[in-house]
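Renewal narrative, Specific Aim 1. Our central claim is that a sequence can be written position by position from structural information alone. The example that follows is taken directly from our test logs and has not been curated for this report. It begins with the structure tokens describing the chain, in the order in which they were read.
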């Protein structure tokens, strides 16, 4: 990431789950590939069309899975000259449902950091979608010190309530949905985000309202836009093309099969076969009103439903219910329940047909979170009658394109429909207001305008990041730019001879811009910080502490949680401790050396004793990493943790090859990080166990001791001179 100033805003969107590609989006393929996928793709595209936006990238998960198109494995898919879909792997290549992604999100964060290193611009803000994208964006915001905005799309708490209501037990809910973890992340997001964008006010009040941290967040209601090229007015004849003509003709023919008098006004409903969509209320209302039946026909499109025998059980129940009501009221010839037709089905054309017939669109849902179909109908010029619960309230207030009703009152539903059907002036008024206002308020252009106004015009100081919850990584930007890293053991390597320490620090200070300085120690973070202070060593950029089981940046404040998550794998501290409790030759170290991921003992040198310990632990099949230092200290860590492994993790995360690292140490817990590609130095005062490194590739045994040994090694490798030549 360079320090050049951007020619415009650079925005990172994160939407991790589902199948995302630019062309032939597989909407509805599964529960994870639906409205959100459509939303983020359209948002990206619309943002990229703005002159003040230099670049917008949509980050998602890379899927390498034979069962799916190879499109989803493409690392970077350019959309236009300002936008791309960026796919990074996490948790392997297999396509997995979103509830299985939580454990892999930290890996994703690290991969984004790696990726950004080579980007020419610095991102201005990150926008997380759904709890998974939110988690990633939130963490990146901390690394990059930039604002973080959030859109939930749907939330865990209301979902949990719904699942409980449906009678699922706790265990099943947790197993299938891992919902408590999701809610925890959402609470965290609300605490740390600069702004939440929602589609409706109801979301803010009722959905986010159920969160403890609800009051901590700032909210902006900003409905997304509609594809107005598809949903154009019914009277805009010039916009129709051949395909549209065909779709219209086919649809009309289909409807004619159902109705005695197909030219009558059409009452149209279009929704998924879902109980909460409350379609039965509309059929009851129609069935009970002979006036309505004489005036109009009713067509209910359940999604674009499949054959009944192919439907899921709960969906089929909804359809069965509708068919029974149709039969009960004897609505044959007046009501249609079409299924997926054999021709290319065109939703906008359906609204336009209903509008040309001077019909009405009805949404009788018990509650409607947003109400996209009402906007689609509105844009086509079809007046609406809709539930007064949820999103439709906003829509009718903004668009004045119809009437809200209490859907528990059947009379109110039929009355509202009749009112529109019987009054041509009212019909035209609603129709024209819908066309005009949907265009003004619910176009992507106006949505993006409001979005940018909110984020750009807002003075920096009113942003939350300055004051609240979120910490900022003080050195991340530096780490994305440096060309070298020097990582030194502390005791008896960096310190031990104060004049030598000062000499070494002078050299490193002179290269501060291009060379990051880190320490790797067996000490705890507090003890390391104190010891460095006493030895007048300036605060390092990176601190690998407690024998590699913890990583910090520039002090004790900012801990690398990606590392924590990574090493937590298969670590069972209590079990390990229990297994070793009875071993007589092991003496526990003092309580303050013990950490979440580190158990330490004193042990006199004895090959047999070390073997005994290994036998006990392997016999019990526990996972661990054992490190013996100074012929005296024994550390047990998670199998993925050690100073050396921490070093490799840093190399990965900050995208700097290991051969750009210089590493120095004196004792056993340094051994592993000195092996292999990094330039290794063993200082002259080394401890016996380091002899195993003698003669190894890229390990230099210095004659000088302590920090002077490090200086000698730096000269030997000409490690810093290479920089000067550039
Ligand atoms: C430091 C730690 C100690 C550890 C030793 C070796 O002295 O305080 O707990 O065992 O390093 O890694
Ligand atoms: Mg040491």
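The sequence written for that structure reads:
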């Amino acid at each position: 990431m360079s320090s050049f100033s951007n020619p415009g805003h650079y925005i990172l969107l994160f939407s991790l789950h589902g199948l995302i590609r630019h062309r032939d989006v597989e909407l509805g393929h599964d529960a994870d590939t639906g409205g959100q996928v459509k939303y983020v793709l359209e948002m990206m595209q619309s943002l990229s069309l703005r002159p003040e936006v230099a670049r917008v990238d949509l980050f998602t998960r890379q899927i390498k899975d034979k069962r799916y198109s190879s499109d989803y494995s493409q690392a970077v898919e350019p959309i236009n000259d300002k936008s791309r879909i960026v796919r990074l792997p996490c948790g392997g290549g297999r396509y997995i449902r979103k509830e299985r992604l939580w454990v892999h999100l930290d890996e994703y964060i690290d991969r984004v950091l790696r990726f950004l290193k080579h980007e020419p611009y610095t991102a201005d803000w990150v926008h997380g979608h759904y709890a998974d994208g939110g988690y990633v964006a939130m963490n990146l915001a901390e690394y990059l010190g930039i604002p973080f905005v959030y859109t939930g799309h749907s939330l865990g708490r209301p979902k949990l309530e719904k699942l409980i209501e449906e009678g699922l037990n706790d265990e099943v809910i947790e197993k299938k949905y891992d919902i408590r973890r999701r809610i925890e992340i959402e609470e965290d997001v609300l605490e740390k985000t600069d702004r939440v964008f929602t589609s409706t006010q109801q979301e803010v009040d009722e959905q986010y309202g159920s969160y403890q941290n609800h009051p901590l967040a700032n909210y902006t209601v900003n409905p997304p836009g509609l594809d107005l090229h598809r949903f154009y007015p019914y009277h805009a004849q010039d916009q129709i093309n051949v395909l549209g003509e065909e779709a219209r003709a086919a649809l009309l023919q289909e409807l004619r099969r159902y109705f005695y008098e197909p030219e009558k006004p059409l009452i149209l409903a279009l929704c998924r076969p879902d109980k909460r969509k409350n379609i039965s209320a509309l059929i009851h209302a129609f069935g009970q009103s002979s006036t309505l039946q004489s005036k109009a026909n009713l067509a209910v499109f359940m999604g674009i439903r499949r054959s009944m025998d192919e439907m899921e059980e709960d969906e089929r129940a909804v359809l069965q219910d509708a068919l029974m009501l149709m039969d009960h009221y004897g609505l044959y010839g007046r009501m249609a329940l079409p299924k997926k037709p054999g021709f290319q089905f065109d939703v906008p054309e359906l609204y336009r047909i209903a509008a040309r017939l001077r019909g009405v669109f009805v949404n009788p849902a018990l509650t409607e979170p947003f109400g996209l179909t009402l906007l689609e109908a509105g844009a086509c010029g079809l007046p609406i009658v809709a539930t007064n619960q949820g999103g439709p309230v906003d829509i009718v207030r903004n668009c004045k394109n119809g009437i809200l009703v209490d859907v528990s009152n059947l009379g109110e539903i039929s009355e509202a429909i009749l009112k529109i059907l019987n009054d041509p002036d009212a019909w035209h008024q609603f129709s024209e207001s819908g066309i005009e206002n949907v265009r003004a308020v619910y176009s992507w252009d106006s949505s993006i305008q409001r979005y940018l106004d909110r984020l750009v015009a807002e003075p920096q100081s009113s942003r939350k990041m300055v004051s609240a919850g979120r910490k900022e990584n003080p050195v991340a930007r530096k780490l994305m730019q440096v060309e070298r890293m020097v990582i030194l053991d502390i005791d008896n390597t960096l310190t031990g001879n104060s004049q030598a320490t000062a000499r070494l620090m002078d050299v490193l200070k002179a290269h501060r811009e291009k060379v990051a300085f880190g320490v790797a120690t067996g000490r705890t973070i507090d003890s390391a910080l104190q010891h460095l202070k006493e030895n007048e060593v300036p605060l390092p950029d990176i601190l690998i502490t407690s024998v590699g089981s913890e990583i910090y940046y520039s002090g004790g404040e900012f801990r690398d949680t990606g590392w924590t998550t990574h090493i937590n794998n298969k670590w069972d501290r209590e079990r390990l401790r229990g297994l070793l409790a009875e071993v007589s030759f092991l003496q526990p170290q003092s309580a303050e050396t013990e950490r979440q991921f580190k158990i330490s003992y004193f042990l006199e040198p004895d090959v047999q004793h070390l073997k005994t310990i290994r036998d006990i632990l392997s016999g019990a099949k526990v996972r661990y990493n054992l490190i013996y230092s100074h012929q005296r200290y024994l550390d047990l860590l998670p199998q993925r943790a050690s100073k050396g492994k921490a070093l490799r993790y840093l190399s990965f995360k900050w995208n700097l090859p290991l051969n750009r690292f210089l590493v120095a140490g004196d004792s056993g817990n340094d051994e592993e990080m000195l092996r292999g590609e990094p330039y290794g130095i063993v200082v002259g005062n080394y401890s016996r166990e380091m002899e195993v490194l003698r003669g190894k590739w890229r390990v230099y045994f210095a004659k000088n001791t302590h920090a002077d040994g490090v200086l000698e090694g730096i000269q030997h490798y000409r490690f810093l001179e290479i920089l000067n030549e550039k």
